Amino acid sequence: MFDPFHEVVTNVSKTIMQFEAELRRPVIGVMPAYFPMELIYAAGGYPVQLWGNNLALEKSDAYLQSYCCSVARSVLELELRDISKMVKAYAFTSLCDTLINLREIYRRLFSKPTLQLSIPITQTEEARQAYIKNVLKSVTTGLEEITGQQITQASLIEAATLYGHTRSLQRKLYNIRRQKPRLIKNHDFYTVLKVGFFLPAGAYNQMLETLLHNLEALSQPQDSRPKVLISGMVFDPIDTYKIFDELKIDIVDDDLANGWRTVSKENLQIENLVEGITQYLFNPAPCCCIYNPDNDRHTYLLNKVKQSGADGVLFWYIKFCEPDAFDRPQLMNRLKAEGIPAVFIDMELSLSNFEALKTRINAFCEILEGDT
Amino acid sequence: MTQLAAYKKMKELMTNYYIEAKTTREKPIAWVTSGAPVEFLYAMDVLPIYPENYAAMCAAGHQSIELLEAAEAAGFSQDLCAYARTDFGADITQGGPVAGLPPPNFLLCSTNICKTVIKWYEVIARKYNVPLFIVDTPFLHDGLTKELIDYTISQFKDLENFLAEFTGQPFDRERFFEVLSLSSEASGYWKKMLYLAKEMPSPFNSLDSFIHLGPIVTLRGTQECVDFYKSLYAEVAERAAKKIGSLPEEKYRALWDNLPIWFKMRRLEKFFEEKKCTLVVTTYANSWGGYSNIDNYQGKDIYEAIAASYLNVYINLGFEERINYLAQLIEEFSLTGFIMHSNRSCKPYSVGMYRLKEELSALTRKPGVVIEADQNDPRVYSDAQVETRLEAFIESMRPINN
Lengths: 372, 402
Hints:
Chain A is of the alpha/beta class. Chain A has helices at residues 3-10, 12-23, 37-42, 70-80, 97-109, 125-147, 153-179, 186-198, 201-216, 241-246, 260-263, 273-282, 297-308, 322-337, 355-371, and strands at residues 27-30, 46-49, 87-93, 114-117, 227-232, 250-256, 312-318, 342-347.
């Protein structure tokens, strides 16, 4: 059932190039996080999300210090090694200091166009709206220049429908996981999500529909196992989920930037695009990288743990991510004060020896089993 | 350190400032970032307190390790900015030279120095349950635009409303303009003093400017600040006129990019003196000279001038502008090379530095070096590693008289 998804993840470049040839759309590399794919698709582009990889860092060390996150370093490695030669341009958001400067590095090193959706950090409502209006204008103009195509009302409707449907199907998958833990192996689940980074939405939606149809027929396994919720920015390295499967732990939900924080976003409203983009960026799930005091992360995460039935929270920390690391201590304290076990595990995307990680996950699992 | 009479005055000023901070009953206290528009606060008799300045004091006084460890024991990762960790530690233990900072009534944070401060101040806001006001000053990838100025002004106006509501008093615009004028005047003296380093030999060095930064960061907008920098400028100008150099002999003149390594000031000072290398100019100390531009608004809306000053901060600039600015400093200050501090604690300053170094060397034909260090965490610093790199760099420079 999951083989076609695994096949894509093991042949990413080949898959992208095939679709590029088929669709005749320029590939736009999308950096983390929350750049609406809809805008790229509506401009005639083929968005491909770059959330890092496990390449050995041979060339990027010449440009990025070891204290930069492995997402930035491994994405740069792709371009320096010419692995991402099919990517015609890059779309950034102003998510963090490293990504802001990474865009500048790309501008100095490469001739490929870059554009940025700068996310406002203000509670001044009028300023925020005016800012997003200007940023949106710059992004859409930039995209149109790259693709040579105009964004029209019709193309926006098509894109919003297509990508809105993707997230709606992904939400169904999350619901199945919440309601029937263990039905989908952890490794399979995140592989399905990862495929969405690379496939065009139309092809991906078809695969998701087939998968959901097949899953509906299956009944819930009966045995009870520890249930966890994971929180962090990036769910990779993908192979680490085999450890959860081996240890018979069910990830029942997540609070990940490239997981539920994105999947939970409703259809992009295009009638008032400025308002639509505002809603898209700031709602519904809070993120450590998005300043939005009206959407408190503590309350949100506590509710999410209760709703998902998770026995504990595992903070999945990709090293050197400051926004994530700043929020974590207070969040963990709050969870513990509410009687919810919480630990954090730090790693880099290039992790290859999983033994230490397995020991730590197992130790957490034992805490959970002791509690339940 | 260059023997300057002003040093004693500065110590007095800073001591008085911290005494007021620790004892005031009348003034509300705001914790603010070093790039925050503090003039709005002084206009409303709010006392600004700078956690960054306090963290630097802790490190310069060799007290940062225990504070860093206290923060880490509370769960804050070693990956985080060491200023933030030092302050978290000082807050937890009530440690450091003045036994912790007085608790804030509210927080004011500007993003022109980094995005890290948002997260840092969110942690404080949650701990003390106080309001956080952010003035967002977006990164200038492509220079200053009218839209960015309008965006910033709109937040300034909102800040005025916030302050009026918080203090229960209407925003005092007349007082605000007085404060702006004082701020601009002090920054003007600071900038004029820094530019005296164009003289050869340089009458002071950059380690002096780091040490004398305190008042321009913390007291900008007060008469005491103006008086202090006026006297510092006069003293340094006299040295310049008499051709009294900072070092006994000046063979090399270098730029320092990024924050200082606060816990190694004395050792590095000795090192550079032995090597006859004057650190002449720094992008960091220069940043507070930029506020002198507020006075040059000449007929324009003064809020535009304030917005431009707070947006146009060196580390808020795209790399094209940074390279041009660095090249200009190398030319104007007759430098023989440049040192870039790849600072683990400051990503906006440091990420991309390797590329900047390559381009700047190619553009100016001057040697440069990148050293790996940290502004506040001595545990990630190696004397041998840094000094070996600096020695090789100094040998690669052509002396000034050749």
